[in-house]
From TrEMBL:
UniProt superkingdom: Bacteria
Protein name (record): Phosphatase NudJ
EC number: 3.6.1.-
Gene: nudJ
SUPFAM superfamilies membership: Nudix (SSF55811)
Record text on subunit structure and interactions: Monomer.
Length: 168
């Protein structure tokens, strides 16, 4: 694998539980229709918090308020040592407001669904990835990290003003 070009994909996901049911999206994928938490990629210039709020709104038409981080998950698709894709997923839990009427969902989203944990388990063959159930299980186990655990540094040196700090 070419270490110079490899970079993980940073994604966010939202777990929303209301009255014992979880908010999910049914979406078109290369493997057909799949179930997933509202989720997507971190975009340039935004914080993880902003990304999960944006993705939830775009995929469900619900405004999301993060309350805690459930966990950070890493998955690699492909053969070890060869090209593939690595995803680092930050999963938050929180609440949503009522669905915004007449708001279009992302093109790949077919619909939103509310499912009980038993319904979700019974549909495991339709999960986008094993992380769908893993994140719900961690949420149900009470795993929570305060939001201030994630720190975002608002400014960094501009090009030509010094090297970027090394983050280990």
């Amino acid at each position: 694998m070419n270490e110079q070009t490899w970079a993980p994909h940073v994604t966010v996901a939202a777990i929303v539980e209301r009255d014992g049911r979880f908010l999910l999206v049914e979406e078109h994928t290369s493997d057909g229709l799949r179930l997933n938490q509202p989720a997507g990629h971190l975009e340039a210039g935004e914080t993880l918090h902003e990304a999960v709020v944006r993705e939830t709104l775009e995929e469900t038409a619900h405004a999301f308020t993060p309350e805690a981080l459930v966990g950070v998950y890493m998955t690699h698709f492909g053969t070890p040592g060869e090209s593939g894709a690595t995803y680092v997923r930050f999963t938050y839990c929180g609440s949503v407001t009522a669905e915004a009427q007449n708001r279009a969902l992302d093109p790949d989203i077919v619909r939103t669904v509310w499912m009980s944990v038993d319904e979700l388990r019974a549909a495991s063959e339709r999960h986008r990835t094993p992380l769908v159930m893993r994140c719900v299980d961690d949420y149900l186990a009470g795993k929570r990290v305060p939001l201030d655990f994630i720190q975002t540094h608002a400014t960094a040196p501009k090009a030509g003003q010094g090297a970027a700090p090394r983050m280990n």
